[in-house]
Design brief:
This protein is α/β, with parallel strands linked by helices and 508 residues long. Helices cover 25% and strands 15% of the residues. The chain has 13 helices and 16 strands. The strands form three sheets. Strands 1, 2, 3, 4, 5, 8, 9, 10, 11 and 12 form a ten-stranded mixed β-sheet that branches. Strands 13-14-15-16 form a four-stranded antiparallel β-sheet, covered by helices on one side. Strands 6-7 form a two-stranded antiparallel sheet. The radius of gyration is 22 Å and the shape is globular. The N and C termini lie far apart (70 Å).
């Protein structure tokens, strides 16, 4: 009896953490971010009623940045608190059965980038007594060569996993009691709109068991929606469903009655309801007051240029970055500045909007801090629980800089950023590895509209002290050179990206 009481008291004193991660949702794809306000330049009229109400119960952060503008590198940062390039994760894996042949030439380790001697957020919480689980998209590595053992997702700190886009989907012999295959993942040639049913069901079951066992839980629910290409559900075309008659002007002129906008926004509205299912389950378990729930996404919205190419209504990845330049794959803010909403009643202030500059590198140290788990070594990020809890607000200068490598991006040229970027305060600097294309922007929300300024439209390199630029570029160059090239044999010149000449943001 005494041990049971101690276990219950321990569970009650250590918060649960539920991390809901969407796929390819841009900053402007959540209504709470002003997506229903025509003056926010979002370009959409999304309907996310649950996330909007969820934001009112917690804090909405306007200046949160992922570790990269691609899926796999971004997810690596959430797991490790490191920049993805630190672990040589420079792009997305080929997660197929023969990916081990194609990944190394692209600068990727052919196995999961989760070194056994480098603890991640899940493994450290598991060691501290947390019940840990991951359901949904994995995309943190593929299959090893046939003569080597392929690590399973559970080996990186999870009591139970159910994944797709990873080794378990590629090689079914890896399936076991701790490594399930996420069902309904794909129906050729389109992604099944029911792919996230498994994620929701398994997540609720796991959290329910953890509460019943008096154990604190850490659960990743990494959803597929709204990554292209979404096979629409029949009810999305019913009269009362949101966006039933939504077609953008070009689609209407082309004679389309069902168009990409309708499918994409319908999918987001539908998934908003799935998020509600999960959060309602937490509340119904009676642990609402002791659970931190965070919603975010892996990178900015995808450009139409990078959809499946199959054409027609199914080419439906058409999210929006809100007022920001760039998209998925770009180092402009549209590629990595995404929604981040946190709720923890009594801890995270309700109905609050905060403009602090924070990033995915801060996830691991912050979660460990609130769970009272020591961090043995520093990471690229740091504990921001004081910002999360509102004891500090609108912190515009970071203790450590955010840095990105990759750049480029799909056409048109205004998406194509230089290959390196760094930001530690209001000033964001982008530059190519070979020193070309120096771009400097004032990203402060308080600067919007000053002298016609718009985010990443006016290059102010000539107005910023050269000593500041030199210091920041030295920091990002030193980091870039310390971790090696993106691909075997790549040079600073080959890793540099071209872009627009004399580009001005549309409408200015």
């Amino acid at each position: 009896m005494l041990s049971a009481l101690v276990a219950a008291a321990t569970a009650a004193s250590r918060p649960n953490v539920l991390f809901i991660l969407a796929d390819d949702w841009g900053w402007g794809d959540v209504g709470a971010y002003g997506a229903n306000d025509p003056y926010t330049y979002s370009g959409t009229m999304v309907q996310t009623p649950f996330l909007d109400s969820f934001a009112k119960e917690g804090t909405l952060f306007t200046d949160f940045h992922t570790g990269q503008s691609f899926c796999a590198p971004s997810r690596t940062t959430f797991m490790f608190g490191r920049f993805p390039a630190d672990l040589h994760v420079n792009t997305n894996w080929d997660v197929g059965i023969d990916g081990w042949k194609t990944n190394p030439p692209r600068g990727l380790p052919y196995h999961n980038p989760l070194p056994k001697d480098d603890p991640n957020v899940a493994s450290m919480l598991q060691d501290a007594g947390y019940a840990t689980a991951h359901f949904g998209k994995w995309h943190l590595g593929g299959v090893n060569p046939p003569n080597e053992t392929t690590p399973k997702p559970s080996e990186y700190g999870f009591d139970l996993t159910g994944t797709y886009a990873g080794p378990v989907e590629a090689n079914h012999s890896l399936i076991d009691s701790k490594n399930l295959l996420a069902l309904d993942a794909q129906t050729d040639p389109w992604w099944n709109s029911d792919v996230d049913n498994f994620t929701v069901t398994q997540g609720i079951e796991f959290m329910t068991k953890a509460v019943r066992d008096d154990k604190p839980f850490y659960v990743n629910l990494w959803f597929h929606m709204s990554h292209d290409v979404v096979d629409p559900r029949p009810e999305w075309f019913e009269t009362l469903y949101p966006f039933n008659k939504t077609c953008l002007f070009p689609a209407r002129m082309a004679g389309e009655t069902v168009c990409p906008a309708q499918i994409f926004w319908g999918a987001q509205s539908f998934t908003d309801g799935r998020f509600k299912q999960v959060v309602d389950a937490v509340d119904n378990l009676g642990v609402k007051e002791n659970t931190l729930i965070v919603f975010s996404t892996d990178n900015g919205a995808q450009s139409r240029t990078w959809t499946s190419g199959k054409g027609g209504v199914m080419d439906n990845a058409i999210g929006t970055q809100g007022p920001f330049r760039g998209c998925k794959g770009s180092l402009y803010d549209g590629g990595h500045r995404v929604p981040f909403i946190a709720r923890w009643p009594g801890k995270v202030p309700a109905n609050r909007v905060d403009h602090s500059l924070i990033g995915a590198v801060d996830w691991l140290p912050t979660i460990l801090k609130i769970a009272n788990v020591p961090l043995s070594e520093e990471r690229r990020g740091y504990d921001i629980s004081d910002i999360l809890f509102g004891t500090k607000n609108n912190v515009l200068k970071r203790e450590k800089p955010l840095m990105w490598r990759g750049g480029g991006g799909p056409p048109p040229c205004w998406n194509r950023s230089p290959g390196l970027s760094i930001r530690q305060d209001d000033i964001k600097i982008l530059i190519n590895p070979d020193g070309t294309r120096l771009e400097v922007y004032n990203m402060s929300i308080y600067n919007l509209g000053v002298n016609g300024a718009f985010f990443e439209a006016q290059n102010i390199a000539s107005e910023v002290p050269s000593s500041y630029i030199a210091s920041q570029t030295k920091t990002v160059f030193d980091w870039h050179h310390s971790i090696g090239p993106e691909e075997p044999g790549a040079t600073d010149k080959s890793m540099s990206r071209f872009g627009c000449t004399g580009y001005k943001f549309p409408g200015l």
